[in-house]
Design goal:
Layout lengths: L1 H39 L3 H17 L2 H4 L23 H26 L3 H30 L2 E4 L6 H10 L4 E4 L6 H17 L3 E5 L2 H6 L4 E4 L6 H8 L4 E6 L2 H9 L4 E4 L16 H10 L4 E4 L7 H6 L5 E3 L1 H4 L4 H20 L10
Parallel strand pairs: 1-2, 1-8, 2-3, 3-4, 4-5, 5-6, 6-7, 7-8
Helix pairs in contact: 1-2, 1-4, 2-5, 4-5, 6-7, 6-14
Enzyme class: transferase
Protein name: Thiamine-phosphate synthase
Cofactor: Mg(2+)
C-alpha cells in the first residue's frame, strides 16, 4: 500500500501536467485553424467544427488539471526549433497547427486511458475528426482558389522557368500548371516539387500535367489530363476527393463527357493554332461561345491567346484564359500577368452591370 501511495504521489502530478499541457496545445492549435476558416475562408461550417472540437476539449480541461500547471518549472518552455520561428505562408501555419493538434490528441488518448476510462476512446474519435477536418479544409481551399482563378499559366521549357513563374505569381497569378514533355522523371519531379513550394508560398494552386504519380509525389494540388491520359475516375481514385482534376477538351462532346465524369475544370481549345498543340487544329471561337452558354464548371479558353486577340475571346463569352507563350516568353512577366488580370476583372465588371453582353445568359 505504501509503495502504491508513493507511486501515485510521483506519477499523478506528472500525468495531470501532461494532460493539461496537451489540452492547452490542442485548443490553441484549433483556435488558429478556426480563425482562418472564419476570416480567411468565410466558411461557417468549418469554423463551427473547430469550435465544437474546442468545446469538447474544454469539457475535459477541468480545474484539477489546470491547478497542476507549473509553467516556471516546465523545461519544455525553453525548447525551440528554428522552423517554429518562421512560417512561409498560410499553408505552413495551418500544417504546423494541424500537426500540433493531432500530436496532442494522440498524447491525450494514451495518457487519458490512465486518467479516465472514457478519455482514450473520446480522444481517439476526436483525432479522426481532426484528420477529416484537415482534408476538408485543404479541399475547400483548393476549390475556392480554383473558383477565384481567372488566369492560368501553363509552363513551357525555359532556363528561366522558376524566375518567370515567380514573377507571374508576384503579379497576382493563382494557378500554375507544370507541363514538361522533354525531361526524364527525376528532373520532372525535382522541378515539380520546387514549383509546388513556390506556388504555395504565394497561396497559388500547382497542377501537374498528365502524370498522376508525379502529382502525388510532388504534393501538387491536382493534375491536368489530356484526352489520351487515364480516365478521370481512375485519377480520382488515386488522388482522392481533395485534389483537383482538369481535362483538355476540343469540342462540345468532349466537354460534356468531362463534366459527366467529374472533372473539376476543363480547358477549351486550342482557340487559335499554337505550337504547343501542333497536332491539333484550332477549335476556334465557336467552341468558346458554346462553352460560355453550356459549361457548368470552371473552364479556361486556351491556345494562342495573347494581348492582341484577348478581346475577341472575351467578346464570345470567354471569362477565364490559360496562356503559355504570352507569359513564358514575356520580357516582363509580372506586368503581363497584371495586365491580363486587370482586363479579366474589367470584363467581369462590365458584364455584371450589363454593359458588355454575356453570351452565357443568351
Amino acid at each position: 500500500m505504501a509503495d502504491q501511495q508513493s507511486w501515485d504521489k510521483r506519477v499523478q502530478p506528472a500525468l495531470y501536467r501532461i494532460l493539461d499541457a496537451n489540452l492547452d496545445r490542442a485548443r490553441e492549435g484549433l483556435r488558429i485553424i478556426e480563425e482562418w476558416c472564419r476570416f480567411g475562408l468565410d466558411s461557417a461550417e468549418l469554423a463551427e467544427e473547430c469550435k465544437q472540437l474546442r468545446q469538447e476539449l474544454a469539457h475535459w480541461h477541468t480545474m484539477k488539471l489546470r491547478l497542476s500547471r507549473d509553467t516556471p518549472g516546465d523545461l519544455g518552455t525553453e525548447l525551440t526549433h528554428p522552423q517554429e520561428e518562421k512560417r512561409e505562408g498560410i499553408d505552413s501555419v495551418l500544417q504546423a497547427n494541424f500537426c500540433r493538434v493531432e500530436e496532442a490528441l494522440r498524447v491525450l488518448e494514451e495518457y487519458g486511458k490512465i486518467y479516465h476510462p472514457d478519455m482514450g476512446v473520446s480522444f481517439k474519435q476526436m483525432r479522426y475528426r481532426v484528420y477529416t477536418l484537415e482534408s476538408r479544409l485543404l479541399a475547400y481551399q483548393r476549390y475556392q482558389l480554383l473558383d477565384d482563378a481567372y488566369l492560368y499559366l501553363v509552363t513551357s521549357p525555359s532556363d528561366k522557368m522558376f524566375s518567370i513563374v515567380e514573377a507571374a505569381l508576384q503579379g497576382g497569378l493563382k494557378l500554375v500548371q507544370y507541363r514538361d514533355k522533354q525531361n526524364d522523371d527525376e528532373i520532372r519531379l525535382q522541378n515539380a516539387e520546387k514549383l509546388c513550394e513556390l506556388c504555395h508560398r504565394y497561396n497559388a494552386l500547382f497542377i501537374m500535367n498528365d502524370r498522376v504519380d508525379l502529382a502525388i509525389a510532388s504534393n501538387a494540388d491536382g493534375v491536368h489530363l489530356g484526352q489520351k491520359d487515364i480516365p478521370i475516375s481512375l485519377a480520382r481514385q488515386l488522388l482522392g476527393p481533395q485534389r483537383i482534376i482538369g481535362r483538355s477538351t476540343t469540342n462540345p462532346q468532349e466537354m460534356e463527357k468531362a463534366i459527366a465524369q467529374g472533372a473539376d475544370y476543363i480547358g477549351v481549345g486550342p482557340v487559335y493554332a499554337t505550337p504547343t498543340k501542333a497536332d491539333k487544329p484550332a477549335a476556334g471561337l465557336d467552341y468558346v461561345r458554346h462553352a460560355a452558354q453550356n459549361c457548368t464548371i470552371p473552364w479556361f479558353a486556351i491556345g494562342g491567346i495573347d494581348m492582341n486577340n484577348f478581346d475577341d475571346v472575351m467578346s464570345v463569352g470567354g471569362e477565364r484564359i490559360a496562356v503559355v507563350r504570352a507569359i513564358m516568353e514575356a520580357e516582363q512577366p509580372t506586368l503581363v500577368t497584371q495586365y491580363f488580370l486587370s482586363q479579366l476583372t474589367r470584363v467581369q465588371t462590365l458584364r455584371a452591370y450589363n454593359i458588355l453582353p454575356n453570351p452565357s445568359s443568351n
